[in-house]
Structures are given as structure tokens and as C-alpha cells.
Automatic annotation (TrEMBL):
Residues 4-104 form the HIT domain. Signal peptide: none annotated. Gene3D superfamilies: HIT-like. It comes from Aquiluna borgnonia. SUPFAM superfamilies: HIT-like (SSF54197). The active site is at H95 (tele-amp-histidine intermediate). This is HIT domain-containing protein. InterPro entries: Histidine_triad_HIT (IPR001310), HIT-like (IPR011146), HIT-like_sf (IPR036265). The lineage of its organism: Bacteria, Bacillati, Actinomycetota, Actinomycetes, Micrococcales. PROSITE patterns: HIT_2. A motif (Histidine triad motif) lies at residues 93-97. It comes from the Bacteria.
Length: 104
């Protein structure tokens, strides 16, 4: 598989993880669109959020989103999932964007 997020998750690229749990990892976006721009990515590969049906993975993903947003923002942030190229998805592995103009 030639998925950059799978490579990040496996440690193959040496990307610094900001947080992780059994189901997901979080790291800074390399092309930030806000002062704080963090990606939260499930370890399980699915193309987009519409395909992610495993309740355990979803719970872990959203648990990490809560943890990361509490740690790296002042509580005000946008949470964004893109599904499909037309809607702005450029990496076809499910991921959430946490974007905020604040930073802790």
C-alpha cells in the first residue's frame, strides 16, 4: 500500500506524533491552514469517514480528537472531515482536521 498516512502510523517516515491511543494517532499538518492544524488519523485504513464502520475505531478516533483539542486549543476549534476529491480530500485515508486560531 502506498498510503502516506499508513507510513506515518507505522513509523516509517519518522513523523513526530503529538498524541496516540490504540486506535488513532495525531500529528501536525505539514501545510497548516490555521495557527493550530492537527490531523487525527485512525490506525485502520479506510478511504474516508463514510467507510469507517468499526465502532471501536470510531470511539478511539473521537477520544483522541477530544484529547488533542483539549491539549492544543483553548476549546474553540473546527473539526473537519473531507470525503472525496471534489470536497478537498487529498489523502485517501480517513482523517480529521482540528483547526484553531488559538494554541496552547
Amino acid at each position: 500500500m502506498d498510503c502516506i498516512f499508513c507510513k506515518i502510523i507505522s513509523g516509517a517516515l519518522g513523523t513526530e506524533l503529538l498524541a496516540e491511543n490504540e486506535q488513532a494517532v495525531a500529528f501536525a499538518d505539514i501545510n497548516p491552514q490555521a495557527k493550530t492544524h492537527i490531523l487525527v488519523v485512525p490506525r485502520q485504513h479506510t478511504v474516508n469517514i463514510s467507510e469507517l464502520e468499526n465502532d471501536t475505531v470510531l470511539l478511539g478516533l473521537f477520544s483522541l480528537i477530544r484529547e488533542v483539542s483539549a491539549q492544543f486549543t483553548d476549546g474553540q476549534f473546527r473539526l473537519q472531515f473531507n470525503a472525496g476529491e471534489r470536497e478537498g480530500q487529498s489523502v485517501f485515508h480517513t482523517h480529521a482536521h482540528i483547526l484553531s486560531q488559538s494554541g496552547n
